[in-house]
Amino acid sequence: MDTHAFLNACRDALGAAHVLTADADKAAYLTDQRQRFTGQALAVVKPANTVQVAAIVRICRHFQVPIVPQGGNTGLVLGSVPDQSGQAIVLSLKRLNRIRAIDAVNHTITVDAGCILQTAQEAAVAADRLLPLSLAAEGSCTIGGNLSTNAGGTAVLRYGNARELCLGLEVVTPQGEILNGLRGLRKDNTGYDLRDLYIGAEGTLGIITAAVLKLFPLPQTQLTALAAVSTPEHALRLLTLAQSRCGATLTGFELMSDLCLQLVGKHFPQLAFPFDQRHPHYVLLELSDSESAAHASRLLEALIGSALEQEICRDAVLASSTAQARALWHLRENISLAQAQEGPNIKHDISLPISRIADFIAATDTLLQQRFPGCRNVTFGHLGDGNLHYNVAPPPDRPADEFLQRQTEINRVVHDSVDRFGGSISAEHGLGALKREEILRYKSAVEINLMKTIKHALDPLNLMNPGKVI
C-alpha cells in the first residue's frame, strides 16, 4: 500500500487537522479504558459528519486499510482499540455529536453516534422527557458505543437495554454506502431487521453514525432504598415481592456484596455507610412513579415493611431526599472505581436466568475458594435483569501480579460455571478482542458459522474492526 497516498486522500476528505499521525496526538486513542493494552494505528481520523465517515470508508476500502471505530473508548473488552500491527486506522466519532431532533409527541430523540449519553439524557429532560439508558460511564460513553455493545445499565429491568430503546439507525456500510434507517416507527414489518443486526455487532458489520431512540414521560418522582439481606436468595425473594407489589414502578434493583461496600468505604471514605452494622449483601432499589411522590412513598414503605415482617431483609434505609438518594447510588456507582484503586482484579460480565443466580453464586464461590484459596469475590450487578459483575480479586496477602497470571484458570472456572447454569459470558460489555476466542467454547458451531457467514457477506474484505467478536 502507498501509505503517503492513503493519508493524503484522508486529509483531502477531512482536512489535515483531523488526520492525526504523530504519536503524541494518537496516544489517547490507542489505550483501552482499563490501561491494560495499547495498540498501534496508522492514523486517527476524525470525521465531522456521516458523509465524511462514508468518504473515509471508501478510501479505506480502496487502499484495503482496516478501520477501528471508536466512540468514548470506555469499553472493557478491547473492542474499541486497534491491535499492535499498526496497519489500521482509528475512526473517532467524537465530532459527530449533535442532537439532531426531538419529537416529544412521538417520544423519540435522534442523535449522532458520537453524542455523549449524558448530553442526550439532558436534552431529553429539557423536552420534559426521559431517556432511561443509564450507566456509570454516561458522562463519557457515546450513543454509538452504547448501541454497538448493546449496553445495559441500571434501568434495564423497566425499560430494556440499548437494543430495546432503539427504533432506527443510520449506518455506513463496509462499501462506504449510507443506510438511512432513521425512522421513529414502533411498527415496521417490511423485511429483515437490519437495525438489530448492527446493534451489538461492535462495529464489525458497519459504522453506526446516528440513531433514533425511545423517550418516555418524566416520572413525577423517584424514590430509592437500600435493603440489607442475608443471602442472594433473600435478594431474589425481595425482587419477587417488589415486582408483585410495585409493578412497573420498580425501575432499579441492584445487588451488592458487603465486600463491595467495604472497598467503597476504604477508598471513598466521604461516602457514609448507612447502616449501624455490616450485613452480607445489600439491594439498592428504585421506584419511578408517574402518579405522585405520596403514592410512591406508600408503595415503597409498604414493600419494605412487608419484607421486614417476612424476614426477607434484615434492615433498610429509605432516602428522604434527592441528596440522600444520590448518596445511596454513589455507593453502587463507585464500586468499580474502588476496585481499580484496590488493585488489579479479574472481571466477569455475565448473565444468568434470574432464578438461578443465587445457586450460581454459591456454587462458583465454593469452586473458586477450592482452587484459589483466599481469593475475594466482588459480586454486584443488575439483579433485576440477571446481569452480574462477578469479579475476582487476589487475596490481600498475595501479590496481585502472581494472582493475575492465573487469569485463564479463573476465567475457565467462572465461565464453565456460567455455562452450566445456562448463562452467557458477556451480558453488556460485548466480546471485543478479549473474549473472541473464549466464546468459541460456549457457542454452538451452528451459531458461530452463521455469524461468520453474515460477517463475510457484509464485510468480505474484513476491514470493519477486524479481530473483534469473530
Automatic annotation (TrEMBL):
Keywords: FAD, Flavoprotein
FAD-binding PCMH-type domain location: 37-218
PROSITE patterns, sorted: FAD_PCMH
Family: Belongs to the FAD-binding oxidoreductase/transferase type 4 family.
Protein known as: FAD-binding oxidoreductase
Biological source species: Paraherbaspirillum soli
